[in-house]
Design brief:
Elements (H helix, E strand, L loop, with lengths): L1 E4 L7 H14 L3 H7 L17 E10 L2 E10 L2 E11 L7 E8 L1
Parallel strand pairs: 1-2
Antiparallel strand pairs: 2-3, 3-4, 4-5
């Protein structure tokens, strides 16, 4: 599955970290996710993405210790959305305390 980045994070390092974590979760990159999130990749419930060829990260935002991202993909001709909500362990966004994934 290809992951495209439309979120503009060039001037916001914390937002870029959110976009990178979102991409790592979507690609199910255990090394990256498990290094930044103590509960690990296996604790995140995923939708069935088997038929998804590409997914786009539309938004990646943060404020204080909270962050979120919005993604869009198509399954059998139907546009779907996937959102991730994050809580950092500190304001420096060095690690994640909470990761919640929701989808339709």
């Amino acid at each position: 599955m290809k992951v495209y980045q439309e979120a503009n994070c060039k001037n916001a390092p914390k937002n870029l970290k959110v976009a990178e974590m979102t991409e790592a979760i979507l690609k199910q990159d255990k090394d990256v996710v498990n290094d930044l999130y103590e509960a690990g990749l296996d604790s995140i419930e995923f939708p069935n993405l088997d038929d998804v060829e590409e997914i786009t990260i539309l938004q990646a935002i943060s404020h204080g210790k909270s962050a979120s991202s919005l993604c869009e993909y198509v399954v059998r001709g139907e546009k779907k959305q996937l959102g991730m909500f994050f809580e950092f362990t500190t304001h420096k966004a060095e690690a994640y305390k909470t990761v919640i994934l929701t989808y339709n």
